[in-house]
Amino acid sequence: MKALDGVKVLDMTHVQSGPTCTQLLAWLGADVIKVERPGAGDATRGQLRDKPGVDSLYFTMLNHNKRAITLDTKKDRGKAIFTKLIEECDVMVENFAPGVIDRWGFPWETIQKINPRMIYASVKGFGPGPYEDCKVYENVAQCTGGAASTTGEIDRVPLVTGAQIGDSGTGLHLALGIVAALYQRNTSGKGQRITCAMQDAVLNLCRVKLRDQQRLETAGPLTEYPQYPNGKFGKAVPRAGNASGGGQPGWIVKCKGWQEDPDSYIYVIAQAAAFPELAKAIGHEDWLTDPKWSTPAARLDKLDKMFDEIEKWTMTKTKFEVMNILNAVDVPVGPILSMKEIAEEPSLRATGTVVEVDHPTRGKYLSVGMPIKMSDCPVEVRRSPLLGEHTDEILRELGFGDNEIKAAREEQAV
Ligand code: CAO
Q1: Using one digit for the tens of pLDDT, what is the confidence trace for 65-103?
Q2: What does pTM read for this prediction?
Q3: Strands of the sheet with 119-124, listed across from one edge
Q4: Annotated catalytic residue, options 42, 55, 167, 200
Q5: What per-residue string of b and e applies to 300-312 under the rule 16 or more CB within 10 Å gives b?
């Protein structure tokens, strides 16, 4: 028994944002039918290929547990099959450029007429406004959602982050909207239209920076930022290097071996409650009785000096030694784990957060599994489908007979 057993999803998504959303729905038990153009498919099947002629990791890692049908929705028979799919499914998800599905002749009003219970969910780059017609990729969303202007070293260029907060972040938001709409449909009996703009999703994840913008305007310099007290603040929230962004100061410091290993660093949080233990661990018990150091407010104007002293100590230990010593006394710390270390971490394999999947043409590969663990909804990660692998099976389920399938093939509609 799965949480979304019985829910059928018409998956018109491609690239990353939409597929992230429908993969989550598939992991929760929905029957997800991925629709792709005959002969071409989702562009990511062929992007960033590591092995010639097989579906890329980009595609396989975003399309687990789905079935795949090819369908040309611009052909007459394609439109008839698409209409049948709309009739039969509970949810339709898409992330095409603005207007694509309307141009096929399927605006929301038509979809609602075909199936009033349909939940129709879209990712777009922007919501209504001056940019609503723009195409958007991950980094455009990071730049327009406030992430890039607030990320990076102090007084250096804006930076994008490796976390795909625009694509996967928006897919996650959309999935929440869909499960809420399914729940609402239980009482309303009706479907609804859901849209999630990548700019909005990124901004939602940058909420604390809009908090800081207002604090900057009302209360003056942001005292927990590294620019305080000597640097300058302009009119907007500045980039703050590795400062914590919360009420507890934090920074990344070097650990033993940093000269050779680019990931030999650890994030240390000088949480007020744990400060006495941190000070003792690094040999600065004197700070606890010195009024220049003993309170969080007193330390604010010398956080750089504080982290320099912490670093002198961390540089004598590996990041895992620091982690073990400081965790034992409740100081929050996070070693900078490389992707190699994460891929090899046994505890992540044990929980299914990192899984090995077998694929008929590419062989074994690693993927990130379901990050949400539910006691009554176990998840088995199944390989992504080949292009059109389930076309005949799905057409038969929709009630199309051999002759109709043959005719659709002749028209190159499937
Ligand atoms: N049958 C017939 N035509 C199909 C089809 C099908 N099954 N599937 C796709 N197509 C056609 C569309 O009709 C469209 O052609 P037209 O514009 O001529 O009608 C074309 O394929 C491509 O669609 P697109 O414009 O969405 O794709 P693109 O590669 O040019 O742009 C992207 C990609 C991501 C920039 C754009 O889709 C977009 O802005 N999406 C919304 C935001 C988003 O999700 N961005 C995240 C991308 S990374 O996760």
Answers
A1: 999 999 999 999 999 999 999 999 999 999 999 999 999
A2: 0.96
A3: 66-70, 31-36, 8-12, 91-94, 119-124, 193-197
A4: 167
A5: eeebeebbebbbe
265 and 396 part of one domain: no
Residue 158 vs residues 234, 238, 255: alpha-carbon distances, Å:
15, 10, 26
Assess whether 197 and 63 both reside in one domain. yes
Residue 41 pLDDT exceeds 90: yes
What is the tens place of the pLDDT at every residue in 98-135? 999 999 999 999 999 999 999 999 999 999 999 999 99
Q: 10 Å Cβ neighbour count for 58?
A: 20
Based on the residue annotation, tell me whether 330 is a catalytic residue of this protein.
no
Q: How confident is the model at residue 11 (pLDDT cuts 50, 70, 90)?
A: very high
**What's the confidence (pLDDT) of residue 121?**
98
* Residue-level pLDDT at 408: 96
Q: Using CA atoms, how far apart are residues 203 and 255, in angstroms rounded to an integer?
A: 33
Task: Tell how strand 250-254 and strand 265-269 pair up.
Answer: antiparallel
CA atoms within a 13 Å half-sphere pointing along the CA-CB vector of 4: 26
In 3-state terms, the chain is what percent helix, strand and coil (to 5)?
A: 40, 15, 45
Pick the last residue of a domain from 275, 305, 331: 331
- Out of 106, 135, 164, 391, give the residue to mutate to test ligand 1, the one with the largest number of ligand atoms within 8 Å of its CB: 135
Question: What's the CATH code of the domain at 323?
Answer: 3.30.1540.10
Q: Distance (Å, rounded) from C-alpha 253 to C-alpha 337?
A: 14
Q: What is the mean pLDDT of the chain?
A: 97
Ligand 1 site residues, Cβ closer than 6 angstroms = 15-18, 35, 37, 71-74, 95-97, 100, 103, 123-125, 135-138, 167
Q: SS3 for 230? A: coil
Residue nearest to atom 44 of ligand 1 (CA): 95
**Residue keyed to tokens 């969080």:** 296
pLDDT at residue 285 tops 90: yes
Domain boundary among 331, 361, 389: 331
